[in-house]
Structure formats: structure tokens, C-alpha cells
Design goal:
Blueprint: H1 2-37, H2 44-48, H3 53-76, H4 85-102, H5 104-107, H6 111-149, H7 159-170, H8 175-180, H9 187-229, H10 235-241, H11 246-251, H12 261-272, H13 280-292, H14 299-321
Helix pairs in contact: 1-3, 1-13, 3-4, 6-7, 6-9
């Protein structure tokens, strides 16, 4: 059983690594293409579109499950001591956790579940920045309570217990016991404990948690609005999807300096001629052609050259008649 799990996870690991490598090749070709034909570099966000985070998650859980299964097999064969069960259980547990997280990828194909995933994705940057600021305030209260109330309060006797006590207070747990456990040997410290706890509870429950929920709700409302009015598209997505009128895109194409006429015709053939729309398939096919070194049929180029030759002959004949 362990060997079958290792083989399946190894195959999955190989396929995901191969997909990521191909995506990075595609990104390199796309960056070169935009730089050569549009004098524009892709932004970091646009480059990250070529990196699939789900594949990274699958690679991590495959590695953890392979390590856990290998250690488990060695323990069963008595090649390792029973102390290695901690490593085995940790790797298998975290690996299975990531496997269940990966199931969310397939729920994203349904609109109702995709709203939740997109909301978490959009709210994550703002939530992380907000948590960074909140952690600084939380750390200040933690050190303050430990240094001042530590000798007089059981829950503030160490830095870890102080942090656990304050986290429980944020969630509304054990409030009365925290107030009642303060000793009355010093009237000043007794009043300071009240002021300290009331300030911390009021700040974090009524302000910090409310703002935290507001950030997530704002992201949720934004995603709902996008479902109604359409999602914003980056420059890369605009290029891949392309305009409805192909002729308008042909007019907007301007060849770069130093390119020969055949290179310009070749660029128009691949991206902006009426015979080939600007689409995801066209862009991917062209970039893959550059990666693989193969070429597509050049019938549109031949047709374009023939049409130019016929038009030139017609003009010369009209001049002769004139």
C-alpha cells in the first residue's frame, strides 16, 4: 500500500513540475514577444498568471505524502525506531490537509462556490496588511501585560500565557475569571488591570474585528459586482481575448524599426491578419511554435504576396493604357 501511494504521488509530482516548467517557458516567450512587438514589459501580476498556485500546493502535498509513506514503510519494517512516528504523522497529516485544500480547485468551476474562492483570493492581500498592523498592537499589549501584571496575575505569569489569555479575551472567553483573578495587594495595579483589560477588549472586539470583517465583506461585494458588470481584464488578457473587429487591430499594428518586410508580414500573419484572429489559441500556438521550433503553414503569407504582385501588375497595365 505504501509503495502504491509513493508511485502515484511521484507521478503526480512529475506531471505538476512538468506543467510549471512549460508554463515558465510560455511566460518567457510571451515576455519576449511583448517586448519586441509592443515595446512593453509584462507586469508582475501578469507574469504571475503563468504560475498556477494549485500546482504548487499539489507539489508540496505530494512531497509530504511521499516522505511520510517512506518513513511509515521503514517503521513497519523495523528499520527505524518508533520515535520516527512523529515525523511520519506530521508529514501525512499536513499532506492530507493540503489534499483537501486542493479539492477547492474543482469547486471553483461552479459559480456559487467560486464566489467564495474569489473573495478569499481578493481579500487576502488587504487582510495580510491589516493583520500585520494588528499584530504590532497585539504584541504591545502582550509585553505590557506580562511586564506589569506578571507578578500579580496567574494568567500573565509568562509571555506565552499572556498571549493565550489576550487571544481568549478577543474571542469573548473567560472574561470574568480574568478580571477576578487579579490580586488586590496594590490598589494602583488593580485599577491599572481594569483599565488595561477594558482598553484591550474594547479596541480589539469593537474596532479590529469589525474592520477585519469589513475587509472581507468589501471583497465579497466587489466580486458580486464583477459577476454583474464583468471582471476587469489586464493588458495580457485583453491581448489574448482580442477585439471584436480584427481590421481595427490590423490598423493599430506598427512594425518596429529594423524589421524587414518579410518579418512584418510574418508578424501580421500570426497575430493581426483577417485569416487569424487574436485569440488565446492563436497566441499559445505561436508561442509554442517558437518553443518547439516548428512552423505553421504559410498560406496567408503566400496569398498576401500574390495579391500584392497582382495589384502591382494591374497598376502597371493601367499606366501603359493611359
Amino acid at each position: 500500500m505504501n509503495y502504491s501511494v509513493i508511485v502515484i504521488c511521484a507521478l503526480s509530482l512529475f506531471l505538476c513540475c512538468r506543467a510549471i516548467y512549460r508554463a515558465q517557458q510560455l511566460k518567457t516567450e510571451a515576455v519576449i514577444f511583448f517586448r519586441n512587438y509592443f515595446n512593453k514589459d509584462l507586469t508582475i501580476q501578469e507574469r504571475l498568471n503563468f504560475l498556477n498556485g494549485w500546482y504548487i500546493l499539489i507539489i508540496v502535498n505530494d512531497i509530504l505524502i511521499i516522505i511520510g509513506s517512506a518513513v511509515k514503510e521503514q517503521i513497519e519494517n523495523k528499520e527505524l525506531q518508533s520515535d520516527a512516528w512523529d515525523i511520519c504523522s506530521t508529514c501525512l497529516g499536513i499532506g492530507n490537509l493540503f489534499v483537501w485544500f486542493g479539492v477547492l480547485r474543482y469547486l471553483g468551476f461552479f459559480r456559487t462556490y467560486n464566489v467564495l474562492i474569489l473573495t478569499l483570493k481578493r481579500a487576502t492581500p488587504n487582510v495580510l496588511r491589516f493583520l500585520f498592523c494588528a499584530i504590532l498592537i497585539y504584541a504591545g499589549f502582550t509585553f505590557c501585560g506580562w511586564l506589569i501584571l506578571g507578578p500579580y496575575h496567574m494568567k500573565f505569569s509568562s509571555l506565552s500565557t499572556t498571549s493565550e489569555c489576550l487571544f481568549a479575551l478577543i474571542n469573548g472567553d473567560d472574561m470574568f475569571a480574568t478580571f477576578a483573578a487579579m490580586t488586590s495587594k496594590s490598589a494602583f495595579l488593580w485599577w491599572f488591570c481594569r483599565f488595561y483589560l477594558y482598553t484591550f477588549i474594547g479596541l480589539f472586539i469593537y474596532v479590529v474585528l469589525s474592520l477585519f470583517i469589513a475587509l472581507i465583506m468589501d471583497a465579497y461585494e466587489t466580486i458580486k459586482l464583477y459577476y454583474t458588470e464583468g471582471f476587469p481584464r489586464s493588458a495580457l488578457e485583453e491581448f489574448i481575448i482580442g477585439p471584436d473587429d480584427v481590421n481595427s487591430s490590423t490598423d493599430s499594428y506598427s512594425p518596429q524599426d529594423g524589421q524587414t518586410e518579410s518579418q512584418n508580414i510574418h508578424a501580421c500573419h500570426h497575430y493581426q491578419t483577417p485569416g487569424r484572429k487574436i485569440s488565446a489559441a492563436g497566441v499559445l500556438d505561436t508561442i509554442l511554435e517558437n518553443i518547439c521550433g516548428c512552423s505553421t503553414p504559410t498560406q496567408p503569407v503566400v496569398k498576401l504576396s500574390v495579391s500584392r504582385q497582382l495589384s502591382t501588375e494591374a497598376e502597371s497595365q493601367s499606366l501603359i493604357i493611359t
